[in-house]
Amino acid sequence: MFDSNLTPAQKKKRAAAQVQGRREDEALEEQKHQKDLEDVTSTFEMPLLLKAAELAGWKPTNREESMRKQAEGATLFLMSLATESKHKSCMELITQLIAMDAMNSNYEPEPQREKRPSPFLIRRPTMR
């Protein structure tokens, strides 16, 4: 804005400060990305992550890769998809995908007579 009034040394200083500011912003963005990645991978089990990613259209590049590698790729895909689709978070997107799949599947709960009784309702003899 007032570059014509600045000396060459001041211009250099300003440029260096701008570059440093960009680096700090990028570092903060990378830290946020890593935290989001850790949150997602610690919240959902790997098979669920893979299932959600496949429901969203992701295909593993190599089936022989370990499940951990596939889950990382699936998580990155889901995170980018959540960003593009303006979801509040990646976890919200994964939860919605899994819920929609459960609603569309023909899941039938087990019949009442075959269910085990709740451990909270069973009365145990107490020693007094």
Query: Which H/E pattern describes the elements?
Result: HHHH
What is the total domain count?
1
Global morphology: elongated
Average pLDDT across residues?
81
Biggest beta-sheet profile: none
Give unreliable regions as ranges: none
Number of strands: 0
Our measurement of the CA-to-CA distance between the termini, rounded to an integer number of angstroms, reads 85 Å
Proportion of strand residues = under 5%
- Helical element count? 4
What percent of residues adopt helix (DSSP H or I)? 55-70%
Structural class: mainly alpha
For the CA atoms, what is the radius of gyration?
A: 26 Å
Write up this protein:
- The chain is mainly α and 128 residues long.
- It has one domain.
- Helices cover 62% and strands 0% of the residues.
- It contains four helices and no strands.
- The chain has helices at residues 8-43, 46-55, 67-84, 90-104.
- The longest helix has 36 residues, at 8-43.
- The chain is elongated.
- The relative contact order is 0.09.
